[in-house]
Amino acid sequence: MGRIYDKSRGNISYEILDEKRYKRYWWGRRPSSKRILEAWLGDPDRTQRSIEIEHGKNYSFIQLNMVDLVKMGIVRRFKRKN
Length: 82
Fold this sequence. Notes:
Elements: E1 4-7, E2 12-16, H1 19-25, H2 31-42, H3 48-55, H4 61-71, E3 75-79
Antiparallel strand pairs: 1-2, 2-3
């Protein structure tokens, strides 16, 4: 089992299934993009909008990166059962 990140909104969790492929995905991409995505993942109460407000920028790439990672089978998105 990989790393699991719980998001409080909608009882959704993300699991990194393959650490090597996850690291390889970020090669050649901005390190700040990875840091921002992991800050969003790491805090269950954090929303993409709160990150945008904090940094004063539009970070729609957070969702785009997640969609790519899920499509590639690197990250799994699932609904938690309470």
